[in-house]
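Closing statement on the cobalt (II) ion sub-project.
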Amino acid sequence: MVILKSPSEIERIRQSNIMVAEILEILRQKVKPGADTLTLDKISEELTLARNAKPAFKGYRGYPFSLCASVNQQVVHGFPSKRPLEEGDILSMDFGISYQGYYGDAAITVPVGKVSSVAQRLMETTKDALLSGIEQAAPGKRLSDISHAIQSRAEEAGFSVVRKFVGHGIGKALHEDPQVPNYGKPGMGIRLKPGMVIAIEPMVNAGGYEVKTLEDGWTTVTEDGSLSAHFEHTVAITEEGPVILSATNGSA
Ligand code: MF3
Ligand code: CO
């Protein structure tokens, strides 16, 4: 069941998502060769607690950290570690909090120093695919119009979209209905209505779309070892169209 949110609830979800965006921005500035993601995890947690908020992922189905830090061929749910980041790596940071009962969830992929042109193109394409999906998040459209826009953008660049993980409704829970796939034919699924709030989160691989989860039960990597990027925004569907809630200054 899709839970519609009132304008005042959307403002509260925005508050949580602005915190997520601010914290991701601080983390982004700390990403460089020699930095390690366990330190980024600690910083994300401290910044969250300092805002009287709670990390959303820690303890969620037993996930042991506040931040998901996925490097290179890691797609999602990578464990933060002490291993220093190296020049040329790409790092996906997925982060969520809850504040006064409402959740925020967003992700970015950032370069570590100078990266290959394929890595750069993969990150840009994934961000563009997210923005094309967001454009479709308007009243009267159907859910799979979002999915189709994302898939088209990724595939026209020669990349592939991960099928195994999807976006989701968000509000008083981190994961609500509907599921938001990143692939599919247009014109299918539920009709989008003002008051829906969804996290849209394409994961795009440089190679094939297949992924596998490692023995830790979380870390998910590309089956073929190719690079992967991940961007996520929490978006409200309003009478006026899509509104990105997880942006610090209204911009994406
Ligand atoms: N953005 C991801 C999601 O919505 C992050 C979840 S990590 C988890 O599923 F640890 F909380 F599962
Ligand atoms: Co999410």
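The CA atoms of residues 203 and 230 lie 4 Å apart. With this model delivered, the sub-project is considered complete and its resources will be redirected to Aim 3.
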